[in-house]
Amino acid sequence: MTSAELIARAVIKVGFQDLTMAKVANSLGMKHSSLYRHVASREELISMAVDLMILESPAVTPAQDWRGHLEQLTDAVWEQFERFPGLASEVAALPEPPAGLLWVFASSAEILVSFGFSAERAMMVTDLLCDMTVSSYLNATQPVRAKADRAAEIKAKYRSLREVRPDVQLPGSEQKSEQIEAALADAFASQGKQWWRQKRDFILDTLAVEVRRAAGLQFRPSSPPIMN
């Protein structure tokens, strides 16, 4: 086992929450200063661990279509974040993407290209969905007050805005204000896994319109209708 692999495994063992160079060095049984002979920064520790996790991720059965692949990919990302608390925020904060992450994006693009996507669109879709998954997970795991309390606060802010900014009210919006208020509170007070999946379905449904239009096929949405 190489020194880089030993260090990466030590990072994973210590965990990503409140990770420090000192904790990793202690796990390896070496002095803090000695660790700097192998890695230059805490960010490098994170990248090494991410690379190893991706390298050792279990093989999955290939999806039968592009949508199945993207659902499979983003489910795996979310599950890794659940398995390793703190990982999502660390990945989001890295100044440069780890090599393993670039490999994930490239592999996803190759699969999408095999389903007929252009390379540029394949990379854009992969980036969009992974980025949305990271941000949604971070929002879902923020320490917040009870859902009812947070929803009430959001509704109060919305009502206050309507009072002080009548210029932003559209014709007929008064009749819809209660519905908008409820939807706003639900969106910002309960951003959990279900809300993430609804956003993902909406993105995939929107993409499916483009894909099926190009093939001359009728579109069948899986997410709730946009219009009543």
From TrEMBL:
SUPFAM superfamilies documented for this protein: Homeodomain-like, Tetracyclin repressor-like, C-terminal domain
Signal sequence segment: none
HTH tetR-type domain location: 11-46
A Pfam family assignment: TetR_N
GO terms, molecular function: DNA binding
Transmembrane segments: none
The organism's place on the tree of life at top rank: Bacteria
Keyword terms of this UniProt record: DNA-binding
Protein name: HTH tetR-type domain-containing protein
Native source organism of the sequence: Psychromicrobium lacuslunae
